[in-house]
Amino acid sequence: MTENTQRNREAEVNLLAAAREAQWSAAAFMGPNAVKVVSPAKVNLLLSIGARRPDGYHDADTVMHALALHDTVYLRVQPASEDEVAQLAEQAAAGRVDIALGGPAGNLAVAIDLADRTGADLSVPAADNLAFKAADALARALGREGAEIVQLRIEKHIPAEGGLGGGSSNAAAVLVGLASQWGVSPDDARVVATAQALSADVAFFLQGGCAQLGGAGEVLQRILEPSRKAVVLVKPAGGVSTAAAYRAFDEAPAPVSAALLQAAAAAASADGVPLANNLAFAAESLLPELAGVRAWLADQVGAENVLLCGSGSATFAVAESFAEASRIATAALSRGWWARPTSFSGLRAAVVPGR
Ligand SMILES: C[C@](O)(CO)[C@H](O)COP(=O)(O)OP(=O)(O)OC[C@H]1O[C@@H](n2ccc(N)nc2=O)[C@H](O)[C@@H]1O
Ligand SMILES: Nc1ncnc2c1ncn2[C@@H]1O[C@H](COP(=O)(O)OP(=O)(O)OP(=O)(O)O)[C@@H](O)[C@H]1O
After folding, report:
1. CA 140 to chain centre
2. Which of 116, 215, 239, 319 could be 122's S-S partner, Cβ–Cβ 3.0 to 4.6 Å?
């Protein structure tokens, strides 16, 4: 190969890489076919898990609160021909592209660019991504049979397997983003039912702010006044699988006391809800380092209340101020843990207007 041919080949490869990159650039998600959706994290102020039901799920009484910490989901919908979607399906089947096919007639091609900004380098095949599952479920619920390509770019700031609901929040963001593109209200009964069928956390993120939920955690009971307080999050390197935490819980189920449940039910605002999580013991049995994180956080000056986030492995503390939360987060980072200062928020999965 001459030097010139070699140089031309390299230029060709660079052009291909640039074209691929451009497909996912911020500019690609501008315009009428695209939306930017905020996708917040949550914590459970109260998580009271009850009996295991015949369907394998557990009764749950929970008060969830959205945080200011959030992922961002960029979403673009392009009408396509059936041939285009069929070609993408062929390439996906041959393992040449990571595109998941869904919708009522396999008519929806979904490509996902997951940009992990948490330092963990999360990688999830498109078909396993909760964001794809949400797109597939909504297309079916709305009976959308036309060929379409949905392109998603998910910028992740919420660590996975932290009990912060990141994946579920991304799913809710996709429901809301697609609903807006498909001319359906995010409060439409079919969107709400799709969220509830996906999971308790997805259902919560449609509502956001602070809310109490029952059933298996997916049935909205009431809305509470959000808190304005600061929060610090600390997570060791390991995660806790939610399903494994529930299994460990079944080996030693311990109910939240009736007095605490009554106090939570009587609280009109998030600040009045007593903190409790009866999954914490199970999570600590799976990841013993969690007990060390809890004890360390409880010892920090300026940390008011400490509780495991959902099924773990993040722990949160309510802080006296954002400055205190930042100081504690810095100290936690120096111990090798992931940590962030943030605050409670009234956010929900919602399209960012005016772009
Ligand atoms: C721990 C929480 O995050 C608290 O908000 C939720 O209860 C779980 O939320 P999630 O991760 O969205 O949960 P899902 O995806 O619905 O369930 C994951 C697994 O957790 C178990 N699971 C979940 C919810 C529930 N009420 N009972 C359960 O037993 C089931 O084994 C299920 O297969
Ligand atoms: N969009 C997504 N973001 C993060 N994880 C995803 C996503 N889609 C699928 N997953 C898978 O789900 C797993 C759990 O991720 P997630 O961030 O939802 O955990 P979590 O915060 O502990 O969940 P929850 O609080 O809802 O129990 C990940 O390990 C990953 O394999």
Report:
1. 22
2. 116
